[in-house]
Amino acid sequence: MNESVTSLILIAATIIIGLVVFSFLGGYFTVQSAQVNDSKEAQVLSTSLQVKQLVNQEGDENYVVIYPFLKGYNGPLYVVAFSLSSFYSSSQNLITPAAPTFNGWVDINGTPGKMENVKVYNTGDGVLYDGSMMIYTTSPNAVQFINFNQGSTVMVWFLVNINGEMARIGYTILG
């Protein structure tokens, strides 16, 4: 009798451990699946983003009109513009506001954006930037005006919020 009770307890314990492991794995793969879907959505938006720009120079100022066209997207578009120092080189492959080439925020449409602490992902699902940045909220397919000193270089990021996570879907360099 003791042997049958012990066997029953071992079988019950094995089943319980199996159910616990199965539920943990199910939760893990659900989260992974959601992250993969978010990354795919960011990649689709990235490939559909088209940025048209018109540059006008007057005196010491560059006046740039940017038109980010994002077909089929109805949510808000977040735009971030920052100036790069003279140490910037076009051969650099990763420029963020945390890089030594960062030289300050640039106003969009004549107004500063909202300073927010944000984590920005690239379309490859890695963290691109984690920190404070000046974000301007607009709608896709709307004209944006940026002016900056002649001789300066400005990087403009285009971000979208996908399930609570900010993803950079494109950028352009002005100047």
UniProtKB/TrEMBL annotation:
Q: Where are the transmembrane segments?
A: 6-31
Q: In which domain of life is the source organism classified? A: Archaea
Q: What is this protein called?
A: Archaeal Type IV pilin N-terminal domain-containing protein
The UniProt keyword set, sorted, is:
Membrane, Transmembrane, Transmembrane helix
